Amino acid sequence: MGGCSVWDISLVSYRMLRRRAFYRSRGLVSRIIRLENGTSIRCWVHLRDVSHRKRGGKKGNHSTVEERTTAADGAAHGKPLSERKALLFLHGFGEDGTTGWRRQVATFTKEYRVYIPDLIFFGSSSTTNQQRTEIFQADCMHDMLVKLGIKETHVVGTDYGGLVAFWLAHKYPEMVQKLVLCSTGVCMTPSTYEPLLKSQRMERIDEILLPTTTDCLKRLRSLLYSKPDNAPDFFLQQLLEVFYNVSMRPRRAQLLEKQVIGSQDCRPLPPLRQEVLIIWGREDKLLKLDLMYKLKQHLGPNNPQVAILDGCGHVPQVEKATHFNAIVTEFLAEGSSDAEMSPKFSVA
């Protein structure tokens, strides 16, 4: 028989199809934004208001993890799309926009106009420009937002996306309102990864962050999660083929090589004007808690709010999605600068 059977689609590809459908169900539309510097950014753009839809469905209907997480966060109806503030999410190094924020989409599309791009050389974003720094990424995020007509936005960045968010907030303070930095090495130094590399018997961080085999991917997942699942090898192999394919490896290695923060030539980091929330997993094995305290000190004793989540590692937005969403929602709410974070979430 002709045609394509369901068995021709890998489990990872099927999950990606489901997630793209889920994003669309929340009013997001995938768009390619072409910039004058030779860069094309794929971004999920919030174009449709679906906040009036009822959550859930008939008894017995199946729901995704993302939908169950949202149900736990509450089912408040959102404002009309035109009246909402913009909210930009920037993903980490091993993900893209479609995978990095899957458990935040439904919660935040109820109250904000959400924008979720793929950073350059992740997902469907690319450039012919020779620049590879995270500062260039920040410039491209700014130019993308300008193209989309966004003058002001809150920003949430995790891991590598947090570095991009930091520079975006510094270089374009008139655009960035509040800033959330999660598990990000803004205050890292050239020696930050040395203990990790020594413990893993590796020489370069790209050997860890750019896995080439299922065993390498298992090692990376053990560093990212406090309790990594026992995914079968065939599934890990599919992950490698989709997210760590050979064609993208050299370009992503260049991103690590040209990263300004943590390099030998990095000048003292600038302060920020914005209100900042720092979120960290207490069991983060990739970027230890001492980096969080250095970041808090750098931003000033009276500026950043801090939330340390127990029972999770480098990806609190995944492992503790409900708590993460509640903390960020509280921080972004009107008047949060005059109120303290909920005690159950914050650590002084």
TrEMBL record:
It comes from the Eukaryota. InterPro entries: AB_hydrolase_1 (IPR000073), AB_hydrolase_fold (IPR029058), Meta-cleavage_hydrolase (IPR052370). Residues 86-320 form the AB hydrolase-1 domain. Residues 53-78 are annotated as: Disordered. This is AB hydrolase-1 domain-containing protein. It comes from Riccia sorocarpa. The lineage of its organism: Eukaryota, Viridiplantae, Streptophyta, Embryophyta, Marchantiophyta.
